[in-house]
Recover the amino acids of this structure.
């Protein structure tokens, strides 16, 4: 079976879910291809994606304007409005998909119509929505009653879609879509090997500072604030592709009373282990990282400095619905005041195996694995 996955470079969660789905589908004997129509078909769409990432990094609160503009403008709602479709079909034309899964809100209408027209009505089209719960950031473009199915990680996700017009008989909870390392236990030997590789102590508590795919962080403010926290601990500062913050921390880390380990891009196993081991994660996490933290049972201190994106409100709503309390940080310079002996966390009580999703896609496709 050939699976075409429609994704985008906006944020980091879409790509994470797309790559995870590709991996699990291929593990089951199928063939998968990831396509990013917004980035590969027309220059203005690519500029829009880059602008999204720029806002997230510089001034997230501005997303209330940009998000609502996209909701109203409906630039990809109808096939006749989509530009660059010819070059996009050249990219995917030889693949001949049996089933399409979209993991991005703006690829579920006009692109659906184009694919149906190009590959006939026999092509199955499924939406996998990674949003965690309802909220002002749950885009209306996620919902298209014409597609074959709407799948979501949690009941809150599917209820939000039904509320917006998705037929209940086409909607199903299939659990989170994560990378391999987040399923199953990491052995003690693997733990020691990974920690030693990154010069992380086995004995000290880990305070984990996260950053998204766009390098969004307030690491320096947090590090200076933690100087006031009286305890023995170490700080792992994830920097991702942000070389600037990595080099800055590297220069000053020996000036602090606690151990600081700045890390660039790390492997999936290391990320899963750090989340499982951390006393807390401080970040402004998207749906992907929030889901990983939930599965790993990691408490989160949500960074809401510089404002909150509409999409982030969905994540916060999920946390509020499932936990007694939520820890928000409006000023990273006082994070030392927010660290308690026991921070709230969520542990989901559902089968989060990716095989549930894969089996459902195979059923929808109506094909046998090969």
């Amino acid at each position: 079976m050939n699976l075409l996955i429609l994704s985008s470079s906006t944020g980091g969660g879409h790509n994470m879910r797309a790559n995870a789905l590709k991996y699990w589908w291929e593990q089951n004997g199928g063939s998968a291809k990831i396509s990013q129509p917004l980035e590969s078909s027309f220059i203005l769409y690519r500029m829009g994606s880059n602008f999204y990432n720029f806002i997230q990094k510089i001034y997230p609160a501005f997303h209330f304007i940009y998000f609502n503009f996209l909701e109203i403008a409906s630039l990809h709602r109808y096939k006749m409005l989509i530009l660059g479709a010819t070059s996009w079909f050249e990219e995917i034309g030889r693949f001949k998909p049996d089933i399409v899964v979209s993991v991005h809100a703006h690829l579920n209408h006009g692109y659906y119509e184009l694919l149906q027209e190009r590959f006939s009505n026999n092509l199955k089209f499924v939406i996998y929505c990674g949003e965690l719960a309802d909220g002002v950031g749950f885009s209306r473009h996620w919902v298209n009653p014409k597609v074959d199915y709407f799948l979501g990680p949690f009941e809150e996700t599917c209820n939000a879609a039904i509320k917006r017009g998705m037929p209940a008989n086409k909607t199903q909870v299939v659990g989170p879509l994560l990378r391999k390392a987040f399923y199953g236990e990491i052995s003690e030997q693997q733990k020691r090997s990974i920690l030693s590789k990154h010069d992380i102590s086995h004995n000290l508590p880990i305070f984990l500072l996260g950053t998204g795919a766009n390098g969004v962080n307030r690491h320096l403010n947090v590090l200076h604030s933690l100087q006031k926290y009286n305890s023995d601990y170490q700080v792992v500062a994830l920097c991702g592709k942000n070389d600037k913050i990595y080099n800055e921390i590297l220069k000053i880390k020996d000036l602090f009373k606690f151990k600081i380990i700045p890390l660039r891009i790390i492997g999936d196993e290391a990320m899963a282990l750090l989340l499982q081991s951390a006393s807390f994660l401080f970040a402004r996490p998207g749906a992907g990282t929030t889901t990983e933290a939930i599965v790993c049972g990691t408490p989160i201190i949500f960074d809401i400095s510089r404002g909150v994106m509409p999409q982030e409100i969905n994540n916060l709503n999920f946390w509020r619905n499932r936990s007694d309390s939520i820890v928000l940080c409006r000023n990273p310079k006082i994070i030392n005041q927010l660290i308690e002996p026991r921070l709230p966390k969520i542990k989901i009580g559902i089968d989060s195996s990716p095989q549930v999703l894969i089996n459902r896609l195979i059923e929808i496709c109506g094909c046998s694995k090969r």
